[in-house]
Design a protein that fits this description.
Helix 2 runs parallel beside helix 4, helix 6 packs antiparallel against helix 7 and helix 14 packs antiparallel against helix 15. The radius of gyration is 26 Å and the shape is globular. By secondary structure, the chain is mainly α. It is 83% helix and 0% strand. It contains 15 helices and no strands. It starts with a helix and ends with a helix.
Length: 361
Amino acid sequence: MNMEHENKKPSVNLRSLWLTMALCAVLLAAAADLAFGIQIIGMIALMGAAGIFTVILLTCETYISILDGVVSLVILYFAGGMTVVMPALGAVFIVCAFVLSRLIKKKCSKTSATVALTVVLLLYFLILAAVLYAAGGHSLAPKDVMQEVNGFFDEMKGKAADQATAYVDGLPDHTIKFYENLGIDMEEIREAYVANAEAAVDAVQMFLPGELLFLLQVFAYLGVCFFVLTVKQAKYEALLPEPKWVLYPTQVTCIVFMVTIFLYMIASFFSGTTTFTVIAVNLLLTLWPSMAACGVRGLVVRLKHPVLRRRTIFILGLFILFGLFMWNLMLPIAAILLAFLGARDVSSLRMAEAEANKKKK
């Protein structure tokens, strides 16, 4: 009896070990890219770490979660060049994982989880940027901050103008002769290129709020998707709030998106850059990721449908054929149509649900 008891060994949770190893590997990649690469891949890796760490928080013992969190910060410190900024930046994955784990326990929808992580990312990076900015001896007064931002974009405009000038000066002789035959001299060409370059920088500045929310929403959605992927790989499907946990925006959001597209298209024909167009573009950039994700899902459903498959492939073929002749317009039109498809599909499903609920009552 004693011999049997002595021969028994404590069972090891291999899934916890696998999750920890995966977390460490992803964080090594994140730290390397954030410190020495293009940063975008590093941010995607951080959101992958957030998805993995969420599963650890939900399934492992508390001491394992704490240990994994501490080890993660150590990895970020040493792999990121031994600077305090790297673990401070990388710690966002711990905050996101903690928030997401609370939402999962409350059976939150995928849409709400994505929105919540977007807000978390926004607040975290704003606070981190404010701390680093103040630590550098700068003032946090709104007036001073805006002056700094405007100065940065003015400098960018100057660099863009210099690059445009250098590009025009480097044009081949046959291109210059082509323009001269049309009655356009070099000075006019130079002014046009410089004006376009400065307008591009101005557009980036005007649409900056929408661009930031667009990027943060994509990162948040990736974090949620990495959580789902980790759950399925680790065989923890019971953690998902619903068997089909999909992105499902509200009908109001879909209607606002579709109406904004129509109003923006009408306004762009009759006027240039106005306050309305700036607000509309920022709003479209903010709502586009969720609508586009729904559009991709709707497109996949149509391609799998036995009746709709041929028609969908035919329309896609025509669109690709159109893109061969209008390559510059293909990507923006495809982005708008994909998001519009998603908004229309979700809006129709929401309306059908509302009708069904009325009949039940």
